[in-house]
Specification:
alpha+beta, 6 strands, 2 domains, two-stranded parallel ribbon, 8 helices, about 35% helix, about 230 residues
């Protein structure tokens, strides 16, 4: 629901209260989810539920009854490498600031004003299960870090360095280290494995790191994604 007086200081305040379809979930009609049930019970009950692919519902709307579809308005697409999400951060900032300057939904209704932010849904891998929201500074009411522009060239440099330094042979040496410490090769010991890997890369590749302007924190943050 949006419009009416649901939220102040946005472009669509004062418009007739409307319902906007932005996702549709299909589930077994016999499923009953209650507030009193534990999280595990509810999760088990919904395991067969699915989010319907957008192409199946883009035409569901009834404007005369103030029911709209999110595809009535401008939408945005972006490709995010979740192994290196910061590479997409500048684009997320750009889109969020654009929406904050002029709400695209407000513009559809000839209303000038700011938009709250953008809700992103990932469809290719999670089929709609992964959703996150990016807000502009005007509407960030929680104590979260502000999205700041990142140095994409440095991120690419770090990515290339990790590909160069975190080799399969080096990771095999890390497994040998676990065996030397009489530790089993399983997830509970992954922290020890990664710590050895990071320290070994820093020790052996310090000259390359300095030449590439890569510091120890960069390596510590990047190695786990590669090693796991």
């Amino acid at each position: 629901w949006c419009g009416g007086n649901i939220q102040k200081n946005v472009a669509i305040v004062g418009l007739p209260k409307m319902f906007v379809i932005f996702k549709i979930k299909i589930r077994d009609e016999t499923i009953i989810v209650t507030e009193n049930e534990g999280e595990d019970e509810n999760e088990a009950a919904l395991k067969d539920s699915i989010w319907l692919d957008p192409k199946e519902w883009t035409n569901i709307k009834w404007h005369d009854k103030l029911i709209y579809n999110i595809f009535d308005f401008p939408i945005y697409e972006i490709e995010i490498d979740f192994e290196s999400p910061k590479l997409s951060q500048n684009k997320l900032i750009e889109i969020t600031q654009e929406v904050e300057r002029q709400c695209p939904v407000g513009k559809y209704f000839n209303q000038t004003g700011i938009g709250e932010g953008v809700v992103w849904t990932e469809w290719a891998q999670t089929h709609g299960s992964l959703t996150f929201k990016v807000k502009g500074e005007e509407h960030s009411v929680s104590k979260v870090k502000t999205l700041a522009p990142v140095d994409t060239e440095k991120l690419e440099s770090i990515k290339e360095f990790i590909e160069y330094a975190c080799t399969e042979n080096r990771m095999r040496q890390g497994l040998d280290y676990l065996r030397e410490q009489q530790l089993t090769i399983e997830m509970k010991n992954v922290g020890t494995f990664i710590k050895w890997l990071v320290n070994d890369i820093i020790k052996e590749e310090k000259d390359t790191m300095n030449a590439s302007n890569i510091d120890e924190k960069d390596v510590s943050r990047a190695v786990p994604n590669k090693a796991k």
